[in-house]
Amino acid sequence: MDEKLGIIAIIVESGSSDCVERINGLLHEYRHIIVGRLGIPYPKRALSLISVVVDGEQDKINALSGKLGMLGDVTVKTTLAGVR
């Protein structure tokens, strides 16, 4: 098992309820690897910022990050560290 600790940074450029529901659905689906999350609305730029701390198998983290990145109006960057 290749477990990693990391942070997934999500920028949501749309406030549409469909986009938010899909993001929340994915985060719920992968809740077993999520340590915590912080969401910050930023009305000045009409977007939201979400940071998600993850701890789990690298393929699960990559799957979550990839699915989030496939959503429209969403930008995702993931940073991982190998932790023993």
Query: What would you say the CATH architecture is?
Result: 2-Layer Sandwich
Compute the number of structural domains: 1
**Helix fraction by DSSP (H/I, runs of at least 4):** 25-40%
Could you describe the largest sheet, including whether it forms a barrel?
4 strands, antiparallel
Which class in CATH terms?
Alpha Beta
CATH topology description: Alpha-Beta Plaits
Give the beta-strand count.
Answer: 4
Find the CATH superfamily.
Answer: ACT-like. Chain A, domain 2
Strand pairing plus helix content: what structural class?
alpha+beta
**What value does the average pLDDT take?**
93
Order of helices and strands: EHEEHE
Query: What is the overall shape?
Result: elongated
| Share of residues in strands | over 45%
Number of helices, counting only DSSP H or I runs of 4 residues or more:
2
Could you list the spans in which at least 5 consecutive residues all have pLDDT below 50? Answer: none
- Spatial strand sequence of the major β-sheet: 2-3-1-4
Output the radius of gyration: 13 Å
Quick summary of this structure?
It comes from Aedoeadaptatus ivorii. The chain is of the alpha+beta class and 84 residues long.
